Amino acid sequence: MTNHNLDQDRAALLEGRQKTKRVTVPAWPRDDNDLPLVQLPVEWPMFSTLNHRTRAEQLREISATGREDLFTRDPLGPEAQDAQYRILHSQDGFDQLKEDLQERGQQEPAIITADGILINGNRRTAALRSLYQEDGVLEAQYVRCLVLPRDATPEELVDLETELQVAKDFKQEYSWVNEALLIEEHYDRADKNWDRVAARMHRAINDVRGMYEKLQQLHQLVELSNGARLHVDFLENESVFDELAKHIKNKSPQESEAVRAVYFLGVLTGAKYRDLRHLKRSDAATLVRSEIEGDAALKPILEAAEAAATETLEDDPLSELLGNSEPPSSLHNLLSFVATKRPGATVALSTGEQLLVQDALKSISSSITAAADEAKEEKRDQNSLKAPLERADKAIAELERVLDALPRARAFKEEWDEVALAERIRIIRQLVQRIELIP
Q1: pTM for the full predicted model
Q2: DSSP character for 19?
Q3: Cα separation of 269 and 272, whole Å?
Q4: Cα(177)–Cα(55) distance, rounded to whole angstroms?
Q5: At what angle do helices 253-269 and 238-248 cross, to 10 degrees?
Q6: What is the DSSP string of 245-312?
Q7: How far apart, in Å, do the first and last CA atoms of the chain sit?
Q8: Residue 391: is its pLDDT beyond 90?
Q9: Quick one: pLDDT at residue 3?
Q10: What residue ranges do the domains of the chain occupy?
């Protein structure tokens, strides 16, 4: 059965290309998984705009150009292809890949559809193209490709990409965001069945579900920013979103919102991850808000945030019907205000002054650090208060175990050492007396 979505002219050209041999591809799920190998001019294959390892970067390009259909209107057109090439060219490790290809040549063939769209090997092909077109390396003029059958379905292509990457090291070419976006797509395709997703990804259910859950937190922050922040901006913050998702899973809505607001604000302002960890508590937002209010330099930004929230509420036609609801946390208005501002932007204050957002972010980060230090000290004090009782409880439990074990030990009359037990009881009594004398 012919796939009518193929570019038939390109498919015909590729079909007529001389096939040098066939190569077995275990990841291709069909019984006949021997694919023909061809050699093609390096500029002829098309980059896949459905490439999951570039999904977050594509969202950045869409935002930069203001073109929602940049990669979908004409995926094989020059605009989409040039944008995809720029993404591949700018990814970490691209220069090292070029050096390796120039030194050792192409070791593994790429995989393309019947009309020449790259399903696997996008980065290698981009690197070869760069070597040939930009650096004049003649040995990079051609790329070797395995060709999929004409009737390959979109679902099979996604599954093939997943299998090929699972067979390698997922972290090698996928950022955590792009990996999570791929898991999200499989989850939607699998009718939200985690067993099927885990089987497809060859990973534990808790693992793929954890990736999905921290992505949902990132989705919320990106949506809150109203376009000012993108998924790709948070590639270095996986641990923050991971810990946030795990902490709020079984918490009350109030605590979840408080901790989420603090973590989001912390990520936006560049607060240190080790500081945020001390603010996983129900009053986290209150602690941070108190520190911010105590900083005279931040008072104008707080006022601007509250004014913006009031203005937004007044402009909402449903607000009168629904009534004035309280924000989810005491930091919500500030978070919403800051999230929608790029670091290089300025904010007009009620005093008439202009405040650079980057300066406000630094000050807010300092307040978060101060709140974290206070929380850490408070926890240390609480631990000090609880420590004597907790250790006494452990001692009681151990003495109860002595009572249980003693009759069995005394049954071995010849081996049992009653004198040694008496000595330990004497030491225990001395310790109890010393505890009772402590003021």
Answers
A1: 0.73
A2: P
A3: 9
A4: 8
A5: 170
A6: HHHHTTS-HHHHHHHHHHHHHHHHHT--HHHHGGG-STTHHHHHHHHHHT-GGGHHHHHHHHHHHHHH
A7: 89
A8: no
A9: 55
A10: 8-153, 386-437
